[in-house]
Design brief:
Belongs to the GMC oxidoreductase family. With about 1100 residues, this protein is an alpha/beta fold.
Length: about 1100
């Protein structure tokens, strides 16, 4: 008993040793055995069961999952997220978006036609490697709408959450004030800490751990079987290859062509089995873009060529960002290069405005032309206005009074925001006379893009590309809205979904005693199940079971609603676990896992006062694990791949939020290749450290973790270009999708819950206490890449810096669909590699390249609008007009709130979910960089303090959920390294604008609340902050006005930003079917680009769950 619960006082030094080991481990790639630079791939890169294009939020989860039972390559156009501090740590969050020095930066910046700056992840892990880290599940309604199995969705969410999510233990001052301000503003009930997407105010979850380290979808590849998976990073897919049928049968995907970083071409092929598929998970932009580049899209084009209020504070800034704020009139302090204050955002959920995407050229490296038509539908504008009204209430609340400047008004902050060039949209006015105008002028993106490959248009309800065989789209491009507060959780969950659950649920039954294949698989699964339980449990159940389903049910019955029995078993295991020949790291991690399981059954371990040393030892090991990659055995630079890089059961393209989860899961029973275009997140403090978070957005190098670009709407965006995807570069919010969202998608709630739990065991942390601004995010950043620790390293291969250029297809000679059989990718040196699927019926390529990358790669591979593909000289495999259509992004608006006192660094753990469709979120004490401070000073925040380069204050924002405005994506060229042209049409639907206004009104109430009185400056009005925000060049949209005191609508439109919750582009029933298979193509699936909305408060939880 003493050893199990208590650690003796004689080992203090070892405790420190363990902590050091863990923090270094969080920064390095944990799967060197299968992660390879695409330059190492052979020209003929092998045959595989599945090829996953896009190592993003869904692709990583999907590839990991498929590798459990199939040979899979994952092709990621970016590099690895590990070793890049702009990705791996919270402190580098902003820096990556300012990284324009490198064409390979992790966030690829581009401008939508709406004038909103956008970015696409260009790194393994996708969006989860570059986003703010919010993790939120989709709602139950969203799951039902999607037609997902709620049970399966729940399982997948849990699968993701075991790796990636962390819950803040305490709320920091800024977040605590915002929480109280939201409640005071009427955003009720208070739901406490939860993954779930619930109306009211909640404490969400993050993919940043308590040490500020990010855990992106790339971490999900730890689940992968490293004997069955290969990840090629810097593998830019140029084209999905199709067999052109005769006798009026569908084209069939059979492979992909990709180029490495040296420009060398590679081809990977599917095995010839009926179930082998290419799965396009290149994201909302990448998936429709690649479909069009591959010849699936509008014929003429190919030929021619709800609101969420969120908040952050104390954000680390780079000098460029500070300069912009200063020029806009922000009199804000930046101690330690951090914002002395915070941000409140209103995000419009369930947007009605829709846009479109077109190819700019045939280069998959280029972003397509995207138009989102923000606030085109008046319902979106109304939602935005309501969200801004909530932000006003929060700002003016008593709870916020201790933080805000008494002389600062809400209107002045609107004017400040309008003065900041946050987008490239024309400003309609300089002063905030209208919240409607504020929403339209200042719209930005939360990177929650969706659409472009929508269900029933481009894909069917199995996410198969309609009209093509062996090709699916599984990412946000298939979503019609952004599920949950943030869609990354749902995208990762979707990546996880595709496995052999039928043997467990009993849905797959034997055809008879001669059904040898069923008997072999069932026996295999029984062996897997029994390997997870101890001898005592085995003795209790094995004699009464005859199948895997019976065995599973017996275990369930044994422990269901019986926490005491489970606790006794776990305590016995904890007390009797000895180190033996295992390493200290493995031993302590085993004890930590058991302790976590005991906590789950309400029997937490406690450590007496006389045993500090071993506790410290464990802490040190864990924090070093957060910095170094835990899977060196299978993660390889793509330059190490041979020209013909092998044959796999599944190839997962994109080591992002879903791709890591998927690859890790698949590796349990199949040979899987995971290809990530970016690098590893470990050893990169901008990725792994919370304090370096802002650096990611200022890192403009070609290999930066966040690849910046601007939407055609004028909104500055970024795409993750790092293992872990968006979970490696975001703010780290972790929130499950709501039950409604799970229901909307048609997912199995039980499976969703299991998948969430799987993710959460690896990547989520609950804050220990509420700090003055908000909940503390656990210091370490855990990203989707951490989920690869789940992977079977004997079955998975991860190639990072593997840019997939093309999915390869076999065209059938006697009818039928084209079949994906391989991919071509390039490594960092430009060498080409080809990988192929094994020729089994279930082998597939899974495209998890994100909402931008997945449709982009589909187009580059010949699946997209015919005319658009032809205009770029792309051989059309499938004329699929809906690839790249239905692109959507949840518009974000908010204010920077200077504080009269220092604020702690905290990300958005407190979330207000309004009934009007807004999510109110906040950050405080943001670590700054000199450029960011300079921008704030120039914008008019001269009086703002930045002690220790941190923002003395916070940011409060509202995000519009369930947007109605939709846009589109087009190829810019044929270079998969380049961002396509994306248009989101922010606020094109007036309903989105209305939601934004309501969200800003909530922010005003919070700002003016009593809870905030101790933080705000008494002389600062809400209106003055609006004007200050308008002076900051957050986007490239034309300002409609300079002052916004009379119009929140103008403020929303002029100052719109992104939360990077892009979705759509490969939507279900349009591009993919309900199984996320690309309609009209065989052996190809696509990840989260099929989302029609952004699930949960933040989608990364759902994206990782989806991958699981």
């Amino acid at each position: 008993m003493a050893f199990g619960r208590c650690f003796p006082f004689v080992a203090p030094s070892i405790g420190i040793f363990v902590l050091v080991i863990v923090s270094s481990l969080a920064e390095k790639a944990p799967y060197n055995s299968f992660a390879k630079d695409a330059t190492s791939a052979s020209t003929s890169a092998g045959h595989y069961d599945y090829i996953v294009i896009g190592g993003g939020t869904a692709g990583c989860a999907l590839a990991a999952t498929l590798s459990a039972s199939a040979k899979v390559p994952l092709l990621e156009r970016g590099g690895m997220p590990y070793g890049n501090p702009n990705i791996t740590h919270q402190s580098g969050l902003v820096s990556r978006f300012y990284d324009t020095s490198s064409p390979d930066s992790a966030a690829q910046l581009f401008l939508s036609k709406d004038g909103v700056w956008l970015s696409r992840a260009r790194v393994l892990g996708g969006g989860s490697a570059i986003n703010l880290g919010f993790y939120s599940r989709a709602s139950g309604g969203e799951v039902v709408e999607a037609g997902w199995d709620p049970h399966l969705v729940n399982q997948s969410y849990m699968w993701v959450e075991r790796k990636l999510t962390f819950r803040p233990k305490t709320l920091l001052q800024w977040q605590a004030a915002v929480k109280d301000g939201l409640v005071e503003a009427g955003v009720v009930p208070y739901n406490g800490g939860t993954y779930e997407h619930l109306v009211g105010t909640k404490i969400g979850n993050s993919i940043f751990d308590e040490n500020g380290y990010r855990h992106s979808a790339a971490d999900l590849l730890e689940y992968a079987d490293d004997t069955k998976i290969t990840l090629y990073y810097h593998a830019l897919v140029h084209k999905i290859l199709f067999k052109t049928p005769s006798l009026e049968r569908k084209p069939r995907a059979y492979g992909v062509f990709f180029k490495d970083s040296k420009g060398n071409g590679h081809t990977a092929f599917l095995n010839g089995g009926p179930d082998n598929e290419i799965i396009l998970s290149a994201g909302v932009f990448g998936s429709p873009q690649l479909l069009m580049l591959s010849g699936v899209g509008p014929s003429d084009h190919l030929k021619a060529h709800g609101n969420y209020i969120e908040t952050v504070s104390g954000l680390s800034l780079v000098p460029e960002a500070i300069k912009v704020l200063m020029q806009a009139g922000v009199n804000m302090s930046f101690p330690d290069m951090k914002t002395q204050g915070g941000f409140l955002f209103s995000k419009v959920n369930k947007t009605f405005s829709q846009g479109h995407m077109e190819l700019r050229n045939k280069d998959p490296n280029e972003n397509p032309m995207v138009t989102f038509n923000y606030f085109q539908d008046s319902r979106d504008l109304k939602t935005c206005v309501r969200g801004m009204e909530v932000i006003r209430k929060v700002f003016e609340s008593e709870s916020f009074s201790s933080l805000r400047n008494p002389s600062t008004t809400f209107e002045s902050l609107l004017d400040l925001v309008s003065a900041i060039p946050i987008n490239e949209r024309p400003k309609h006015r300089l002063k905030t006379a209208s919240l409607e105008q504020f929403c339209m002028d200042n719209v930005i993106t939360l990177l929650l893009f969706h659409g472009g490959c929508r269900v029933d248009s481009v894909v069917d309800h199995d996410y198969k590309v309609i009209g093509i065989d062996a090709l699916r789209v599984i990412d946000g491009s298939t979503f019609s809205s952004s599920p949950g507060t943030n869609l990354q959780a749902t995208v990762m969950m979707l990546g996880r979904r595709f496995n052999l659950e039928g043997f467990i649920t009993g849905e797959k039954t034997s055809a008879g005693k001669d059904d040898v294949e069923w008997l072999q698989l069932d026996a295999l699964i029984q062996g897997w199940i029994l390997s997870t339980v101890n001898d005592e449990v085995s003795d209790l159940i094995i004699s009464s079971t005859t199948s895997a389903a019976d065995l599973w049910k017996a275990i369930h019955n044994l422990f269901h609603d019986n926490k005491a029995a489970r606790a006794m078993q776990l305590e016995h295991q904890f007390y009797n676990t000895i180190k033996g020949t295992s390493t200290i790291q493995t031993y302590c991690q085993t004890l930590q896992n058991i302790a976590d399981w005991l906590d789950d059954v309400d029997a937490p371990l406690w450590f007496p006062f006389f045993a500090p040393s071993l506790g410290i030892l464990l802490l040190i090991i864990v924090s070093s694990l957060a910095e170094k990659a835990p899977y060196n055995s299978f993660a390889k630079d793509a330059t190490l791949a041979s020209a013909s890089a092998g044959h796999y059961d599944y190839i997962v393209i994109g080591g992002g939020t879903a791709g890591c989860a998927l690859a890790a899961t698949l590796s349990g029973s199949a040979k899987v290749l995971l290809l990530e275009r970016g690098g590893m997140p470990y050893d990169n403090p901008s990725v792994t450290r919370q304090s370096d978070f802002l650096n990611i957005f200022f890192d403009t190098s070609p290999g930066s973790a966040a690849q910046p670009f601007v939407s055609t709407d004028g909104v500055r965006l970024t795409r993750a270009r790092i293992l872990g995807g968006g979970s490696a570069i975001n703010v780290g919010f972790y929130s499950r999708a709501s039950k409604e969202e799970v229901s909307d998608e048609g997912w199995d709630p039980h499976l969703v819950n299991q998948s969430y739990a799987w993710v959460e065991r690896k990547v989520t942390f609950r804050p220990k206490r509420l700090l003055r601004w908000q909940t503390a995010v656990r210091d370490g950043l855990h990203i989707a890449a951490d989920l690869l620790e789940y992977a079977d390293d004997s079955k998975i291969t991860l190639y990072f810096q593997a840019v997939v250029h093309q999915i390869l297809f076999k065209r059938p000679s006697s009818g039928g669909n084209p079949t994906a059989y391989g991919i071509f990718f390039k490594d960092l040196k430009g060498n080409g590699h080809m990988v192929f699927l094994n020729e089994g019926p279930n082998n597939e390529i899974i495209l998890s390249a994100g909402a931008i990358g997945s449709p982009q790669l589909l187009m580059l591979s010949g699946i997209g609008p015919f005319d658009h593909l032809k205009a770029h000289g792309i051989d059309v495999i499938l004329d699929q007009q809906m690839v790249g259509q239905g692109m959507a992004d949840n518009p974000l608006n908010g204010i920077i709130i200077p504080s009269i006192r220092p604020t702690e660094t905290s990300f958005s753990d407190v979330v207000g979910i309004t009934r009007s469709g807004n999510y109110i979120e906040t950050l405080s004490g943001l670590p700054m960089v000199p450029k960011a401070i300079e921008i704030l000073r120039q914008a008019g925040f001269e009086d703002m303090s930045f002690p220790d380069m941190k923002l003395q204050g916070g940011i409060m924002s509202e995000k519009v959920n369930k947007i109605f405005s939709q846009g589109h994506m087009e190829l810019k060229n044929r270079d998969p390294n380049d961002n396509p042209m994306v248009t989101f049409n922010y606020f094109q639907d007036s309903r989105d604008l209305q939601t934004c206004v309501r969200g800003m009104e909530v922010i005003k109430k919070v700002f003016e609340s009593e809870s905030f009185a101790s933080l705000r400056n008494p002389s600062t009005s809400f209106e003055s902050l609006l004007d200050l925000m308008s002076a900051i060049p957050f986007n490239m949209r034309q300002k409609n006005r300079l002052k916004y005191c009379a119009s929140l609508e103008d403020f929303c439109v002029d100052n719109v930003l992104t939360m990077w919750h892009f979705h759509g582009g490969c939507r279900v029933d349009s591009v993919v079917d309900r199984d996320y298979k690309v309609i009209g193509v065989d052996a190809l699936r696509v990840d989260g680009s099929m989302f029609s909305s952004s699930p949960g408060t933040n989608p990364q939880a759902t994206v990782m769950m989806f991958g699981r």
